[in-house]
Design a protein that fits this description.
209 residues; Rossmann fold; three-stranded antiparallel β-sheet; three-stranded parallel β-sheet; 7 helices; 34% helix; binds zinc ion
Amino acid sequence: MGILWSRYVYVNRYKAKANPLYTKLHDFVKHKDYFVLTTNVDHQFQLAGFDKSRLFYMQGDYGLLQCSVPCHNKTYDNEELILKMVREQKDYRVPTQLIPKCPVCGRNMEMNLRADDRFVQDDGWYQHAELYQEFLEKTKGQKLLLIEIGIGFNTPAIIRYPFEKMTYLSKDTHLVRINKDYPIYPQELVGKAISFDEDIDIILDEIIK
Ligand SMILES: [Zn+2]
């Protein structure tokens, strides 16, 4: 993890302000029983005021480091380190002693992002996976609206396909798919799904109305 990463994380994780789109989404759900399942790795949901216990960041977090091996199943908050790296960089270089090393094996640390099978799922990850499962259990037999935003075919097995299956299997579940490039949904979901390929901002305004 070097200069580019530290700048990137700084800009996207620590310097970022709430994107108005997320604030709008929060205004829409805040008085409802909701849960957010996301492949985002920034903190836009938290910045917009979403309740942390209603979020599951399944693909990692710019704010966390892990061992690159990984030799143990733990993640480490990187805020202090990133701020220091950004502060002390010179001529596009970060002082060597600031390059993070694993406190257990001494090898390099890297971002806790799911890029391959070395992704560390720590206690926090499992805790939020559990919260999501509890939410699904709790809402069984109740009306459930799945709003899927911007999920294409990069990792469809994580959100897109499961949402289709849940909509198909429960009479109380409906799906709103917002996707510029891939708005289509399976024939079996006709009458239970609706999709939009317009701008997310415009669609959210309409749904909120
Ligand atoms: Zn290690």
